[in-house]
Structures are given as structure tokens and as C-alpha cells.
Amino acid sequence: ADVFTVKFLLQLQLARCSYFLFIILCAFIAHKIATTNDSPKSPLIIWLLLGIVFMIENVIDDRTLSVRMIVLVGLALLLVYLFWRQPVHWQRVYLAGTLAAVLLVTGEKTIERIAETGRIFDTTLTTPWEDMQVWCAQNTPTDAQLMTPIYIEGFRSFSKRPIYGTYKDGAPHNYSRKTIFRWWVRMQALGVSLPWNRAAFPALYHQHALPVARENNIRFIIYEKNIALPPVAPLYENQQFAIFEIPALQDSSATK
Question: Taking the domains of the chain in order of start, what are their residue ranges?
């Protein structure tokens, strides 16, 4: 995180906000269709309806296809053009709606944090995930690499330890072509494939994590406790997670 640039953060957040602006875009398109004098079969109406279909598909499907991206870019340009031609009062309505959506998204977590702690910035560690990170920071070598659940983010925040990777590490790698292929090889080793199913990540991790950790000489592995854990005492555990030293695990102790 120390080397993230402003440009990178802006690119990442714009990509994230595009999902939350989906409702605003749909409302804009619906209003345009309802108020236009064009025939329902006109190219403009057909293109707008096609755009809605592609936007919905883009939200629910993680795959990136060239045809889809071309259509989405074309739709975005069309929306900019149509917005520019709107009367001033409608421009204000859409801008106000967009601003409200952005404020709602960005303020949700802050409101939750204030309600829970009474502070905007909460410095307390309140989750088992954070607790496990702090334990690792205090009880593992500084150069120790850990195998952590690929479907849970943020382990490096408090642990200050390198990990094998998570599925969302691919987002920063989009801006580093030298490493994205290495990341994808790691995800494939853990059973991840395209199109991926996020609901299957926990099962894939518990099936493949231990063998992959052994192959990469990783010393520590963390499991969620809602599955059958290896039949040895963990180095540490809390309400939700347990950490094991891999050399102490037998080959037959991998979870199933």
C-alpha cells in the first residue's frame, strides 16, 4: 500500500463506483425511452435496451470479453451524448442522484463505524480476522510467508507478513503486467478457474491449500474453523480462525 499512486487509487475507485452507478444509469435510460418521440424500433431505443442487458450481465458476471467491453464503451459514449442534450433541470436531477448514490456508498461504512464505536476512525481490533493478524505479527518471523484463505482480504494490514495471495490481488496486478501472470498461476494452483464462482472459493481453498503450501515451502497455514481442521493442536486459534505450522501437519491431515 505504501507504493500505491493517486492515479492507481483513482482508477481502482472509478472501477468500483461504476457498479454503484448502475441504478442511476438505468433510470436515465428508462427516462430517455419514456420521453422520446422515436419509434420503439428506432436504432437509439434498440441500442439503449441492448445497453441495459449488457450492463446487467457485466454486474453479475466477472468475465471480461472484448465484445462486451466494446458495447459498454459505446453505451457510455452514447449516455454522455444524451446527457449533454438533456434540459438543464434534468441534468441537475441526474447529477443530484449520482451524487446521492456516491455519498450513500462512501458514507455507509462510516455511519456503521460511528454507530458501533462513536468514532469516525476506529483504531480498535474487533474481529477474529484482525486478532489473527496481530498474533501473527507478534509470533511469526518477519520474513515468514503464510497461506491464508484466498477469499478473505486484508490479512497483510495488521500482520505485516507476506501471503500466498487472495483472489482480489488480481486488481492491483492489472497495473503490473510483470506480476499478473504469476498471481494467476497461484490462483489456478488453488483450483480457481474462469468463469470463477466465489461461493466455491472456501471449498477450493480447504482442498488445495495444504499441498500448495508444501510445494512452495510455506511454513504457516490458516483455516476457518467452520470446517474439519487437521487433527493436531493449532499454534493459535480464536473464535473463527486457527493457524497451524505446516511441518507439523501430516500429509493425511489436509481438510476435505
Answer: 6-117, 128-253
